[in-house]
Amino acid sequence: MALEFCLATASSFVAPLLADYLVKPIERRIRYLFRAKLPNLDLVTSKNHVDSKSSDAAFNKIMEALKDDKVQKIGVWGMGGVGKTTLVKKVGGEAKGFDRVIMVTVSETLDIEKMQNKIADDIDLNFEKKTGEVKAAELWSRLSNGKFLVILDDLWNEWDDDEDLRKIGIPLVENGKGCKIILTTRNYSVCQHMECEEIVQVKILEDREAWTLFEMNAGLKNADSSVIGEAKKIIKECKGLPLAIVTQARALKGKGPNTWKDAREKLEGSELMEIRSIQKKKDKNAYMSLKISYEHLEDKMAQTCFLLCALYPEDHSINVEDLVRYAWGLNLYNKANSIEKMRNEVLSVIDQLKDCCLLEDGDDGRYVPKL
Ligand SMILES: Nc1ncnc2c1ncn2[C@@H]1O[C@H](COP(=O)(O)OP(=O)(O)OP(=O)(O)O)[C@@H](O)[C@H]1O
Ligand SMILES: [Mg+2]
Question: What start-end ranges are recorded for coiled-coil regions in this protein (predicted)?
Fold first, then answer.
C-alpha cells in the first residue's frame, strides 16, 4: 500500500518531468529531422574541382551581384563544356542569405510542369491541386514569402522574359522577398533577352590549370615519361575546355603508352570520334556539345558560315572580307542585292557565332573558329 502510494505520488511529478526533459526534446528532434531537408545534393561540388582564374573571377562577380539589391537576374554564359554548371553549383553551395537554393535544369525544350515539380520538391511543397496554373499560384505564394535563389541551368531558347517565370510560378525578388535568378546558357543573347542586370562570361582554362585538371582525372602521378609527353600534347588539343580535358583524361586513365600515342595522333588529326576508349565509354560529350550548339544556330546561313570557317586550318584567323566574298559567291542570303548588304548580313552572322562561342575575336577584325 505504502509502496503503491509512493509510486503513484512519484509518477505524478516524475511524468511531467520526463515529458519536459526527455520526451519533448526527442519529439522535437524527430519532428525537426522530418521537416529539415538535407543540403541540396544538386549543389555538391566534386572533389576533383579545380579553381581557375576565369571561374574564380566569375564566381566573385556572381557573389557580389547576389548581394546587390538592384540585381534580380544574373546571366552566366560560355561555350559548351566550359564549366558553367560546375560554377553555379559552387555558387549555390556557398550563397548566403537565402532560405533555400533551388536548382532546375531547363535544357532545350521548356517543360514547365517538370520545372514546377522540381522547385516544389526543393522547397518541400506538396501541391494541393495538380493543374499547371494552380501549381504556379501555389509556388508563387510560397516563394513570395521568403528569399530564394533559383538557378535555371542550361537555357537555350529565349524565354518570353518574365512572363515565362510567372507561368512557372517564380516571383522575382522585390524588397527582400521572392527569387533571385541565376541562369546559365551557351548563348549571350539569352542573357540579353532575359534582361539580366549582371552578365558573366566563363572562359576556358589557362595552360597550368588545364594540366592540373588533366593530371587529376588521368592519375598521372606514377606515369612513365612517354605517357607524360603524350599527355602534354593531348592537353594542347583540348584547348583549355574542361569537358574535353576531363573526357580525354578519364578515357586514357590507366592505359598503356601505345593507347596514349594512338589517342594523341587521332586528336592531332581531329578524329575525336575515332578514339576507341571514348567510343567505348559512349563519352562523346565534347563532340556532342559542339554539335548541339551548331544545330541551334538560328538560320542556315549561320550554319554555312560556321562550316566555311571550319574549313580553315586550326587557329587560323579568318578575314571577314573573305567570308563576305564566299557568302556572295554562294548566294547565302538571296535578299542581298549588293556586297554592302551581304557584308552587313555576314557581320550579323559573325555576332551570332560569337554569342554562342563558336567563333572568337582574332587580330585586326579577324575571327578564329573556337574548336
Ligand atoms: N573547375 C572545374 N574543375 C573540375 N572539373 C570541371 C571544372 N569545370 C568544369 N569541369 C568539368 O567539365 C565538364 C563540363 O563542365 P560543365 O558541365 O560545368 O560545363 P557547362 O559549361 O555547364 O557545359 P554545357 O554548356 O554543356 O552545359 C564536367 O565534367 C565538369 O566536371
Ligand atoms: Mg551545363
Answer: none
